[in-house]
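Blinded run. Sample ID left blank on purpose so nobody reads anything into the name before looking at the predicted structure. Input follows.
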Amino acid sequence: MRKTVLFLLAAICAVGFVSCTKSDNRPSQQISFVTVHQRAVAGDYYFETDTRKTIYPSDKSQVASYEATEGQRALIAFGLLDEPVDRYDYNAILYGIVDIYTSEVRIVGSQEELEELPDASLLQVDNLQFGGDWLTLGVIYTFADNKKHNFHLIVNEVEPQSTDSAYLDVELRHDKGDDTENAYYQNYISFNIHAIKPLLEGKKGINLRFKDDSGQDAYLKIDRDFE
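Blinded prediction complete.
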């Protein structure tokens, strides 16, 4: 988990979002996966962590060009400020922000719907965080044009499995469109799990199925970090 997250933080530095050398007169940097929320004030926004804490970035000077989308998932680099902001848990300076792939879990109940979902291979899948309303994963695959790639997290009621009664079986489907393989890419994807919360009651977590690089079924058990 640590190596994957730091890889993305390095990407934030590389594209010039933030200076990654510590300055004595600035708060220490932290990183967190968050959900972006727009405020009533035009162009303004705040963040919600997966533990339902709110962060208001009162200093956005280093990411002035960022445009917020309601419900978007992101990885942020920030520092906490001492001065409180009314109605928010934390006040922060925002050093950098990268939006990540955002979608929702689906329950698939028909053969037609299932057949419409491609199931391309993935070289690696890592659990980054599973708590609150979100499951966030790191995935590695080959690509030439990343814009053609999409992901679907589903509960397959057409061909149900029962590998372990303590876990809910779900599938990660990779749709690469007509992309050709060219280079390795590491992406970060996040799914809202609201639709399957009733199915998770009494479960330790999920048992995630995906296709590995040989085209075979691979499984990853993921315990919930917190609720």
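Unblinding after everyone has recorded impressions. The helical segments are 2-14, 111-115, 197-200.
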